[in-house]
Amino acid sequence: MPRPPRSWRRAALAVLVSLAIPAAALTAQASVPPPPAGWSLVWSDDFDGPAGSPPSSSNWQFDIGHGYPGGPGNWGTGEIQRYTSDAANVGLDGGGNLRITPIRSGSGEWTSARLETRRADFKPADGRILRIEGRIQMPNVTGAQALGYWPAFWALGAPYRGDYWNWPAIGEFDIMENVNGINSVWGVLHCGVNPGGPCNETSGLGAGRACPGSSCQSAMHTYRFEWDRGVSPDQLRWYVDGQQFHGVNQSQFDATTWSDMTGHGGYFLLLNVAMGGAFPDGVAGQTTPTASTVSGRPMLVDYVAVWQSGGGGGPTDPPGSRDAYGTIQAESFDGQSGLGVETTSDSGGGQNLGWAANGDWALYRGVDFGSSPARQFVARVASGAGGVSGLVEVRLDSRSNAPIGSFAVGDTGGWQSWRTVPANISAVTGVHDVHLTFTSGQPADFVNVNWFRFGH
User: Residue 250 and residue 227: Cα distance in Å, rounded?
Assistant: First the structure.
């Protein structure tokens, strides 16, 4: 198939088929993790409290009914439930979790709950990274019994409060969405105009993948969104259990779209479980929920936290935390420009770094070469670029430093046709930030990278 254009920078929004995985016992309570080295905590809630009590009123407010007063009906999505603040639909479970439970009454009415943070100013300072994370178990229901379930953890631009007709221009970051009990997390960006526009509304720019290890429904997973103002252009990134599965950058958008989405005072966070609506109906190919849909399967939220890096992008790992001689996954970068992440068909699975072209780069902080000099660089690469070729270069500590080594890449037979390529490098010891830089005499994409490592 032809390579997607550079402006697309995302995997297709695909329906992932869930495997039949037996339900697991609930994961034990976990507190909000301490800030990573170089980061500080902005805000958090770990949902500790007596069973049946509501979440903190100083942190959260409830949305009630079928829409905001004066706003679009059915919350603008076609979902059918009525949101309440009733204890049957929402409350703490006494074990450190928030429960949001959709319930179908005897008359057939569905009720559920939707919460918003009172704060609406979540936004990174210039040169820093904002990280929004939640540890969540989706409703533990699959198959026909799950049709219509639509759990979500997301963020809306602050100007939406009080003006419910400025979507999607003010921006929406869907950190975790799921429908119909499929073993998949979707991350989606909404922006611009509706329909169409740079975010392809009403679908948005999205990507999805299966949850690592246990299914999304049977266990807790961490869902993270990062807004990185420490690189140029700005980056938006989505993760599950620390693995990036979606990303976009500022250069994909015109100045007005980007300013409307990022130039206001910040974002507020939301947690909800909807029933029915455009997304679950579209994936199911029928109206949901159905007579087979079961009632009473809650979404569990262990914590929600917001962190900010200390400045200049900030390291996400302590110095020397990467072993130069172990395999470094290319998608585990600490900063990048012009690149994307996609699912790989290479052995071992996971993701690869993609769409590398002239001038693009990726940063890996704190790579420890030890005291015995490394003299070789090995990378796993693929290319379907036809007559386009280029160099994969290794630079230490600054992208302006001369490369310590490089190798040329031509067409390998396809964007998922992988080859392991070695190159000699100047002798290196100690701990360094490693930059992979990509150089070509042509503007087109010329290489994907799955992993790399160094050798003596």
Answer: 11
Question: Per the structure block, which two tokens stand in for 105?
Answer: 């009454």
pTM value is: 0.65
Please report the beta strands in 276-430, taking only residues with DSSP state E, as ranges in sequence order. 299-309, 322-323, 328-329, 335-337, 340-343, 351-356, 361-368, 374-383, 390-396, 405-409, 414-428
Beta strand pairing call for 351-356 and 340-343: antiparallel
Longest distance between any two alpha carbons in the chain, whole Å: 74
Dihedral of the alpha carbons of 184, 32, 41, 169, in degrees to the nearest 10: 30
Q: Each residue of 242-288: pLDDT tens digit? A: 999 999 999 999 999 999 999 999 999 999 999 999 999 999 999 99
The answer to whether the CB of 378 falls within 8 A of the CB of 410 is no
Provide φ and ψ at 68, rounded to 5°: -65, 145
Burial class for 73, CB neighbours closer than 10 Å (0-12, 13-18, 19+): exposed
- Residues contacting 310, CB < 8 A, separation 6+: 38, 39, 40, 128
Number of C-beta neighbours around residue 269 at 10 A? 25
- For residue 369, how many C-alpha atoms fall within 13 Å in the half-sphere facing its CB? 21
> How do beta strands 340-343 and 361-368 pair?
unpaired
Strand ordering across the sheet containing 149-157: 60-63, 114-117, 267-275, 149-157, 172-177, 185-190, 205-209
DSSP 3-state assignment of 236? strand
Q: What is the pLDDT of residues 197-246, one digit of tens each?
A: 999 999 999 999 999 999 999 999 999 999 999 888 999 999 999 999 99
The answer to whether the bond into 202 is cis (omega within 30° of 0) is: yes
The CA-to-CA distance between both ends of the chain, in Å, stands at: 39
- Helix or strand or coil: residue 228? strand
Q: What is the dihedral of CA 357, 361, 367, 369, to 10 degrees?
A: 50
